[in-house]
Design goal:
This protein is of the alpha/beta class. It folds into four domains: 218 residues, Rossmann fold (3-Layer(aba) Sandwich), CATH 3.40.50.300; 195 residues, 3-Layer(aba) Sandwich (Rossmann fold); 178 residues, no CATH class; 170 residues, Hypothetical protein af1432 (Orthogonal Bundle), CATH 1.10.3210. Helix content is 37%, strand content 14%. It is built from 33 helices and 25 strands. Helix 11 crosses helix 12, helix 28 crosses helix 31 and helix 28 packs across helix 33. The longest helix has 22 residues. It is globular, with a radius of gyration of 28 Å. The two termini are 54 Å apart.
């Protein structure tokens, strides 16, 4: 294999020559030391931390034995600009010129551009997955938000094995950092095959251990020197009247604009109420606001607004959106502190804790291009030290005063580590994990729709991702869905809300979030009637059907950590914000697109057609008691839900456009499996066992009942694997993989697998999500085999699962299972041949 030159490849990938720290990190990656991947990188803002992905990619190309195959880049929260994805797409474009042979898969678990599944379609392919703590963390714990039970093991396995998890701004999420370190320790204890590696990135570390950071060579570099010594003059301003806090910040902002016309001024405050007050005092056409309370769809669209374009580096600006001229203002809460590649000319902000202030300083004069940058910080006259985080804010003020007006990264980094830690926001209460908790989360078959009861002892994962911050008010979310007012009365029995939301999951672009107090206040003041239907979604996805009036009567505490689903007719939405004044709102669940702009899901009425690349996933008869003649005249009866064939939220393509023969599909799956495992550093016997499982995985489809459900009237002369669009519509509980287990044990080669027989059976059992740990009782049968054989399989499946999980580890077993899952999904999405249907 030809080794590519790091300096040249890095320059081609990123467009810039490497800084000394980037080259040093590469040398560390390819070294023979056991800790070749440092656990912590302490790097100032503005030095291209995202480029660790380019460093990893070059190291993986030159030394695939020393680097994990997937890099998982985790950011603190969802932001308007996914800087990481944009940067990595540039790497993929420049890959071939840099001498990197393998195509890089890129997936983003955020926003209206949903997971494109590139990362999970082929585990042998190098991949970068970008996502938030919630999106990545929930998937690591087998509880992926918006994921069905079938895909949760795949996500956990592929994120938690053969992966490098890079936690950006790790000091902002200490609970998540401790969680992923706990997962690392558990994987080491269980001797997982390809355990996850973890590296934190931070400019202001909470830790005290050895860190990778800048050296004298970096500080001597001209560009690095300019950035870490960027001129940022601090002005501390005492708040004279607490009641006029927002007004004083607005005045400071306007005065800064007058002194520095034609500049971009960013404003940070701690409360959403203050954002709203400040924005009202600023020129309407020259200001925007960025808060966590903005609905995801509108937040994604903020980047294309002319005002926001002024805060982006010229290379990141949209070519078709002219930046706003004159002085512009961006008013933010902490939502603008991380993950956004913006650089304002000046900063005005309220005092916060030290790590928050450091983030804010990093959003101004980021690249050291100006010599007149001002930072104005307004602080309270007195602090109530007994109320977190007041004491930490007092300590932060003392640190800022000690800087004597110098807000450069070098000055910030020179502060005493212990003094900085004393000024950090209090660490939340971090809930301890355990092997019992990991076991309970891994039982993914025990989920809706297979099992409707909650599993005792399995808590929602939210508090394990973020910890419990008692000084922060609980939060809630709001979204708008048409089904809330369409599925009522007896229809709720036929179409249970939990099942509907499992089929058509809530996505981040639909949601807005805020503290419960503000949400409850606005819901209470809505113009909608008290009888307006409302769904309240709990942390574990259970749904309470109620009314707006009953919700208000129950009180705000009933909304803690829940999602309120309103019908669009209830109103309450204006410019992406929840407001009691608006009579308008819209259901944006369908605003979910792939990279080509195709809708990933769609809902239409009656005879309205979906495009050929969509597949029907559900038909709801909203008027079941109406006769056909009356129905034809009234319309609006059948509500049809579709998803994109090549990747919705299900397990893959359930039906092809044309029928696919059993032997064609099986050969496709075997071919895909062989291609995948041959590229992976797995023991040879495991590779062969997975291939054998692929050969047997669909034997259970060779049943008259199953073929009838597919609409195949020519069985057994013709055996189908996929039905085609004219396939049968009969509902049937028989699971073909259950039948495959019975037939595999009778396969002439089965006994030759010795100790791997149990492994082969488990891989087959789980390839559609069952078998972790069981098959539900109503699915544990085979119409053409004996009851005794079925009872044996049903009894042995959970025992086998427990044994193999102890042998390979939770994430290790999920990873191995998912090799067949990925191969099967790929074969279903792109069959090598179709059988022509008879007219």
């Amino acid at each position: 294999m030809t080794t590519i030159n790091f300096d040249e490849a890095f320059h081609v990938l990123t467009g810039n020559p490497p800084f000394p720290w980037q080259k040093a990190l590469y040398e560390r990656f390819i070294s023979d030391r056991p800790d070749n991947i440092p656990s912590s990188c302490n790097l100032p803002t503005g030095l291209g931390k995202t480029s660790v992905i380019a460093v990893w990619l070059i190291a993986l190309t030159n030394h695939p034995d020393k680097m994990p195959r997937r890099l998982v880049y985790v950011v603190n929260r969802r932001t308007v600009v996914d800087q990481t994805t944009t940067e990595v797409e540039k790497y993929r474009t420049n890959r071939a010129k840099a001498g990197i042979p393998e195509v890089l898969a890129i997936s983003t678990l955020r926003g209206q551009f949903a997971d494109n599944r590139e990362w999970s379609a082929d585990p042998s392919r190098p991949a970068v997955i970008c996502g938030t703590v919630d999106m990545i963390g929930s998937r690591l714990l087998f509880s992926g938000y918006g994921c069905g039970f079938k895909t949760r093991p795949l996500h956990a396995g592929f994120l938690g094995q053969d992966s490098l998890l890079v936690h950006d701004e790790a000091h902002l999420e200490p609970a998540f950092q401790m969680l992923i370190e706990a997962i690392q320790k558990e994987q080491a204890r269980c001797k997982d095959l390809r355990p996850m590696k973890v590296m934190e990135l931070t400019a202001t570390s909470r830790g005290e251990g050895e860190v990778f950071g800048l050296t004298d060579a970096d500080r001597a570099n001209t560009e690095v020197h300019k950035r870490i010594n960027a001129k940022k003059t601090i002005h501390l301003v005492e708040n004279k009247d607490e009641k006029k806090y927002a007004e004083e910040i607005a005045d400071l902002t306007l005065n800064c604009g007058k002194r520095h016309p034609d500049t971009a001024i960013i404003v940070f405050v701690r409360k959403v109420d203050d954002v709203e007050k400040i924005v009202k005092k600023l020129p309407k056409d020259s200001s925007e606001q960025l808060t966590g309370t903005l609905r995801g769809l509108e937040r994604d669209g903020l980047v294309r607004k002319p005002v926001f374009q002024r805060f982006l580096p010229p290379s990141n600006r949209a070519k078709d959106v002219p930046p706003q001229s004159g002085t512009v203002y961006l008013v933010c809460t902490s939502a603008g502190e991380v993950g956004v590649n913006i650089s304002a000319d000046h900063l005005v902000c309220a005092l916060s804790t030290f790590e928050s202030m450091a983030q804010r300083f990093g959003r101004v004069n980021r690249f050291g291009e100006r010599d007149d940058t001002e930072i104005h910080i307004i602080y309270p006259t007195k602090f109530e030290d007994e109320k977190p985080p007041q004491l930490q804010m007092r300590n932060t003020l003392a640190l800022l005063q000690s800087l004597k007006g110098n807000g450069s990264p070098t000055a910030i980094g020179s502060l005493d580590q212990n003094d900085r830690l004393a000024a950090f926001a209090p660490t939340p209460t971090i809930l301890p994990t355990s092997d019992i908790l990991f076991d309970s989360w891994a039982l993914t078959t025990i989920n809706r729709p297979l099992v409707k009861a909650k599993l005792p002892g399995r808590p929602p994962v939210e508090l394990y991702l973020h910890g419990v911050a008692e000084w922060q008010p609980p939060e809630a979310h709001v979204a708008w869905r048409e089904e809330v007012e369409l599925i009522t009365g007896d229809l709720l029995t036929e179409y249970e809300p939990e099942d509907l939301l499992a089929e058509y999951a809530l996505k981040p672009h639909e949601l807005l979030g805020d503290n419960v107090n503000r949400i409850f206040d606005r819901l209470k003041k809505l113009k909608a009637k008290a009888t307006t239907p409302v769904w309240i979604v709990d942390e574990d996805d259970s749904v309470e059907v109620t009314t707006l009036g009953t919700l208000i009567e129950a009180g705000k505490d009933e909304l803690n950590d829940k999602t309120v689903l309103l019908p669009p007719s209830a109103g309450g939405l204006a410019n992406g914000f929840l407001t009691s004044e608006s009579l308008n709102a819209n259901d944006v669940s369908g605003e979910l697109h792939d990279e080509e702009g195709n809708p990933r899901r769609l809902r239409v009425w009656d005879n309205a057609e979906a495009s050929n690349n969509m597949r029907l996933i559900l038909t709801i008869d909203t008027k079941p008691d109406t006769d056909e003649a009356e129905d034809e005249s009234s319309g609006g009866r059948l509500w049809k839900w579709y998803e994109l064939r090549k990747g919705g939220d299900g397990e893959g393509v359930k039906n092809s456009k044309l029928p696919v023969l059993w032997n064609v599909h099986t050969d496709d799956v075997v071919c895909n499996t062989r291609r995948i495992v041959e590229k992976l550093p797995l023991p040879e016997d495991l590779k062969k066992a997975v291939i054998f499982a692929a050969e047997c995985h669909d034997l259970g489809k060779k049943r008259k009942l199953f073929q009838t459900v597919l609409g195949n009237r020519e069985y057994p002369s013709i055996e189908l694997a996929k039905s085609g669009k004219k396939g049968g519509r009969a509902e049937e509980r028989y699971r073909h993989e259950f039948g495959s287990l019975i037939d595999t044990e009778k396969h002439p080669e089965f006994d030759s697998w010795g100790d791997l027989k149990e492994f082969v059976l488990h891989i087959i059992a789980t390839h559609h999500g069952r078998g972790r740990p069981h098959f539900p009782a109503n699915e544990a049968f085979d119409p053409e085999r004996s009851d005794a054989a079925a009872v044996k399989v049903a009894r042995e499946t959970p025992q086998r699962y427990a044994h193999l999980q102890r042998k390979y580890g939770r994430w290790g077993l999920a990873y191995l299972e998912s090799l067949l899952r990925a191969a099967d999904y790929a074969a279903s999405a792109k069959p090598s041949a179709f059988m022509e249907e008879k007219k």
